[in-house]
Design goal:
Structural class: alpha/beta
Helix content: 25-40%
CATH class: Alpha Beta
Order of helices and strands: HHHEHEHEHEHEHEEH
Radius of gyration: 17 Å
Shape: globular
Number of helices: 9
CATH architecture: 3-Layer(aba) Sandwich
Length: about 240
């Protein structure tokens, strides 16, 4: 079975309907990811792998149902635009901010927006700690996403300051250990949030078994002004351990 058919099949199993137009957009985005030569933005150029292990994986965020109702989303540590751009291509009404600190990857994102004529998306080439203190971004988003960025406690400090009270951070994870969850919960509490849910991501046999989870952090109160800390500090001294 072709990769696009598998994407459609798995998406349907997750409750996501992909028409021909959306599939075409996802396919074009996968080709842009695989063909980009100025920087290695995802680690592979194989189109099938790009579609099934990166683009499709990004769509698993829709297993968190409130995502479909979000108006503003910030994708933190966006890299090649994952999961932010696949989410945008499936839900074009959401306004997306792609936060990426590496200039080469930010250039890829801008080129992709231009090539695909995408409106309602902006690229912010800054570190997450800087963005989280900026007035226009702080507490301005319904949902944040982070894929393969850092341990949960670090992701929480990057993402929670961006959320409005009542908003949610989606941290995409592979294997999870109880210690990481405990650290993440302690960090979330200091930030005015809580780990509210862990969603296991089921995969069809045709796709192949792989352990994937969405850790949902819900913002329940305002984040103290001292967070996020200075650039580099969250990763060096995770909040759940200090």
């Amino acid at each position: 079975m072709g990769a696009l058919e598998l994407v459609k099949l798995q998406a349907r199993a997750w409750g996501i309907g992909l028409d021909a137009q959306r599939l075409g957009h996802l396919d074009k985005f996968a080709r842009l990811l695989g063909d980009y030569e100025e920087a290695n933005v995802i680690g592979t150029r194989d189109k099938r792998e790009v579609l099934l292990e990166h683009v499709l994986d990004s769509l698993s965020c829709f297993l968190f149902k409130p995502l479909g109702e979000a108006e503003r989303l910030a994708d933190v540590g966006s890299g090649g635009g994952l999961p932010g751009l696949p989410i945008k291509l499936v839900a074009p009404q959401v306004r997306v901010t792609l936060v990426e600190g590496t200039a080469k990857k930010a250039r890829f994102l801008r080129r992709t927006l231009q090539t695909m004529s995408l409106d309602g998306v902006r690229v912010v080439n800054e570190r997450a700690e800087e963005v989280g203190r900026a007035g226009e971004h702080r507490e301005g988003y319904d949902v944040t996403t982070a894929r393969a960025v850092a341990r949960l406690a670090v992701v929480a400090e990057y993402c929670v300051p961006l959320l409005r009270v009542g908003g949610h951070a989606i941290s995409m994870k592979g294997s999870l250990d109880p210690e990481e969850i405990s650290e993440g919960q302690r960090a979330a509490e200091k930030l005015g949030a809580e780990v509210s849910e862990i969603i296991r991501v089921p995969r069809l046999p045709e796709i192949g078994e792989k352990q994937r989870s969405l850790v949902i952090v819900r913002k329940v109160g305002e984040t103290p002004n001292r967070y996020p800390r200075s650039v580099g500090v969250p990763a060096k001294r995770p909040l759940g351990m200090v």
